[in-house]
Design a protein that fits this description.
Helices cover 42% and strands 19% of the residues. Strand 2 and strand 3 form a beta hairpin.
Length: 363
């Protein structure tokens, strides 16, 4: 990251700390106002095509012991991040949690990592600086790309050029924490295929689907990390590649698609940066369970509750999703991607995906 970017991020953090100081000096109770991060407080931004937070807010205020502790932790974290940027260092979210153990005020230390993670999200929102620009990294997500894409990557040892098909092994190219450091040099891809599970991703690569169909296969690794979603957005916007999402046929996988296409409730403040509204869901669909008579498992009570919740989730209120979810509740079944193997190991690459891609107008 450039020195200028470091300095800009650091100044935003220091300005935030200065606001607390000004509140103290003016005789006000220090506070920090944030959007309420709930399903009921997201709304569709017609201009940007993504889901963002609405007008409801909550306040972190020092008018209670608990609120004062939260602001104290924020101030200590701001100081740590500002020093980190000054030194051009980086750390992980997990390290931040443990680092707080060394702070000289017990009340500033985090109780668990969920608390420190949430505070970083809070600081992102109020400072309008992403955690990547804070030099904060998650643990490795393991998400990878395989396909006809030639890139230039910035590393601690300088630049290196990589072809994500010819210069990598079967595992593919691992997505870095900050994919904005990647420069796209050239590509022969026709579309992006985001795949939920490692087993299906390996099947597609082994069968040569990336080469046969000029596909960029992106392994989501379950709920996709921010870096993965950011790269997908860049591939769509900058290379003008259609994006498709291939996941299991259950409510939790639909939410994986939702985080790629619509953004997640947790990070709705970054939807314009992370979400790809044009992404299409390629399957497994409840309709596929019926059409292909796939091996299934019964829906659990938590599955049913999740599906019913998605019917009222504004991100899934389209004719397509309402029809598919209602069908799934009717048949009471769910299926995994690998269930397509019941029709043979080549069925997914020779028949299912080509037919779905053609029907969706991607091929």
């Amino acid at each position: 990251m450039s020195t200028d970017t470091n300095q800009e991020a650091r100044e935003q953090l220091i300005d935030l700390a200065a606001e607390f100081y000004d509140q103290f000096e003016g005789g006000e109770i220090p506070s920090m106002t944030l959007p309420t991060r709930t399903k009921s407080n997201i709304e569709y931004d017609e201009e940007k095509g993504v889901w963002v937070y609405g007008d409801r807010t909550s306040t972190r205020s020092a008018n209670s012991v608990r609120g004062a502790q939260k602001l104290l932790k924020a101030v200590y974290t701001i100081e740590f991040l500002a020093d980190q940027l000054e030194e051009d260092r980086s750390s992980t979210l997990r390290e931040l949690y443990y680092l707080s153990e060394s702070w000289n005020n017990d009340n500033a230390q985090f109780n668990d990592q969920d608390e420190s993670n949430q505070l970083i999200e809070d600081l992102e929102i109020v400072s309008e600086v992403t955690r990547e620009d804070f030099h904060m990294r998650p643990e490795e997500s393991g998400a990878k790309v395989m396909g006809p894409l030639h890139i230039r990557e910035q590393t601690n040892r300088g630049e290196r050029d990589i072809h994500c098909q010819l210069d990598v092994g079967q595992g593919g190219y691992q997505i870095p924490n900050n994919p904005d450091t990647i420069e796209f040099l050239d590509n022969d891809a026709d579309f992006v295929l985001c795949v939920e599970t490692g087993g299906m991703r390996d099947r597609l690569v082994e069968n040569g689907f990336d080469a046969d169909y000029d596909a960029l296969i992106v392994h989501l690794g379950g709920q996709p990390a921010r870096a993965t979603r950011r790269l997908i957005r860049r591939l769509h916007d900058e290379l003008e590649l259609p994006v498709t999402v291939f996941a299991d046929g259950d409510p939790w996988s639909y939410r994986i698609y939702g985080s790629v296409a619509y953004g997640s409730i947790k990070s709705a403040h970054l939807s314009e940066y992370l979400a790809t509204p044009e992404a299409k869901y390629i399957g497994i669909q409840p309709a596929d369970i019926v059409e292909y008579d796939l091996p299934t498992d019964p829906l659990s009570d938590s599955d049913i509750n999740a599906l019913e919740s998605e019917l009222s989730d504004p991100r899934f209120q389209t004719d397509y999703w309402e029809e598919q979810i209602e069908l799934q509740l009717e048949i009471g079944k769910k299926a995994e991607q690998q269930s397509l193997a019941a029709r043979g190991l080549d069925f997914v690459t020779d028949t299912y995906l080509p037919e779905r891609l053609e029907a969706m107008g991607v091929l």
